[in-house]
Amino acid sequence: MMRTRPRGSLSFAGALLTALTALALISGCGDRSGASRPMTGPAHSSSSSSSASPAALVSPSPPLTAAQPTGTLRNPPEVVSKNGFLNTRIVVERKRVELAGKKLWALTYNGQYMPPTLRIRPGDRLKLAMVNKIDQMTNLHVHGLHVSPSDHSDNIFLMIEPGETYHYSYQFPPNLAAGTYWYHPHPHTLSAPQTAGGMSGIIVVEGLKQYLPKSLRNITERVVALKDFQRVGDQIKTADLSIGAPTTRVVNGQLNPAIHIRPGETQLWRIANIGANIFYKVALPGYKLRVIARDGNPVNRIYSVDTVIIPAAARYDVLVQGGPPGAAELKTLPYNTGSAGNQFPEVTLATVVSRGEAMTPAKLPTTFAPARDLSKAKIAARRTITYTENAAGTEFYINGKQFDPNRIDFTGHLNTVQEWTVQNNSDEVHSFHVHTNDFQLMSTNGKPETFYGYQDTVDVPPRGNIVVRTAFENYTGKTVLHCHILNHEDKGMMSVLELVDGPPAPGTGKDPAAPGVEKDSTG
């Protein structure tokens, strides 16, 4: 991977930015002089939690902001596979970190708010020892990766108790899609507080640049990891989380960092929302974002957008070409998730600084990577998945039921394709995410969607619906589908999907405890 250093000088305020860069935050560094303290405790709803400390129950402090860049954007540290193997260790602990100019107690991986990026290749093997040093159970989900959901692999049903070490082992398929993924905890009722507390990091599957022209295969690559935190005193809030409460948004753990680019230069940005709950509507005025992958899936053809809406868990790999000398603000624009949802304000995420010797903008390809289109696939079964919630917004349901890990809600048969209609019978946006196998978005509110490739997280509009198709491949076992607004998932909006071998019996199609499911058919 090519690494860059700032070059040249700013045409409009070089001395000022140089001085500001000297003040760059050391985000995510563990303060080893401070002793660990117990967590404030999780919250399961907007009501008070008996395990929460008094500090966790008061309103969060105002968001931290920075009108000028506070330093140069830094990619997170990395651990990289070698010769088809990556062996690493993650320690889960509560530590003080320096974050946005403050020393705050956070939930960390390896003592860092922005933990190492795991870089692997298709076909690799990953061994990961997870050491739990907090006072709650936890586990690990490798979000979006096509890998076994069973045993010591991506098994979100197992729990690592306080003081325990668990040894994960993943064998990735040779055709694993190249792109950006992430890792985070997935213990039911604790996913939101642990992720919001700081427990999330990036995974990169190498190979995306192979689809670019040779002249662009060594371009600068930047991780743009979007995280946010609500602050109460000297700690990141983890209990009684309110999605619409004031929050501080950071990029790679940095507050409004400067992203340097030369005029005309092409860079690859891996934009990932690895927070618990909130939405981003990302825009860079004066620039086009050219999408080359979504949710770890390369697109079949590159397309340009002015904005991308990124719900919690979604990722976009984009090409950005440097504009004229000067500065532009990478922003999240105002976004409203509905009358029962939240209104998110405009916030500057980073400052893009174009400076240095100009380059001739590269001619970008239109076609990109091969992708299997499921629009003509034989459909083994059609399912209906209905989202509802109570009036108070404290309980959430799929097909009238809250999550039960011991109940099988849906069944998928290996080497078949199913079509799911996800109906949102609420007045706020929910998202749809499924583990193990990604899906093709067919339509939104009856309008056909252009096929670019697969996704693993997509919004479902209020009082609306989406239709997706998914192919079950390679792996059997119990997995889940859910809303990836983690507050909603923790409060019930998750179902068990069991992947089984062999074709379904003729004329059958109803899953146990899943009302409103249509019979198997072909299409």
Topology:
Blueprint: H1 14-21, H2 54-57, E1 78-80, E2 85-99, E3 102-109, E4 117-120, E5 125-132, E6 141-143, E7 165-171, E8 179-184, H3 191-196, E9 201-205, E10 221-229, E11 231-232, E12 235-236, E13 248-251, E14 258-261, E15 266-273, E16 280-283, E17 289-294, E18 297-305, E19 307-310, E20 315-321, E21 326-332, E22 335-336, E23 343-344, E24 347-354, E25 379-389, E26 396-398, E27 410-413, E28 417-424, E29 430-434, E30 439-444, E31 447-448, E32 457-460, E33 465-471, E34 477-482, H4 486-490, E35 494-500
Parallel strand pairs: 1-4, 2-5, 4-9, 10-15, 14-24, 25-28, 27-35
Antiparallel strand pairs: 2-3, 5-7, 6-8, 8-9, 10-13, 11-12, 15-20, 16-19, 16-21, 17-18, 17-20, 21-24, 22-23, 25-26, 28-33, 29-32, 29-34, 30-31, 30-33, 34-35
Description of the structure:
The protein is mainly β and 523 residues long. Helices cover 4% and strands 38% of the residues. The chain has four helices and 35 strands. The longest helix has 8 residues, at 14-21. The protein starts with 13 loop residues before the first helix and ends in a 23-residue tail after the last strand. 50% of the residues are buried. The model is unreliable at 1-56 and 508-523 (pLDDT under 50).
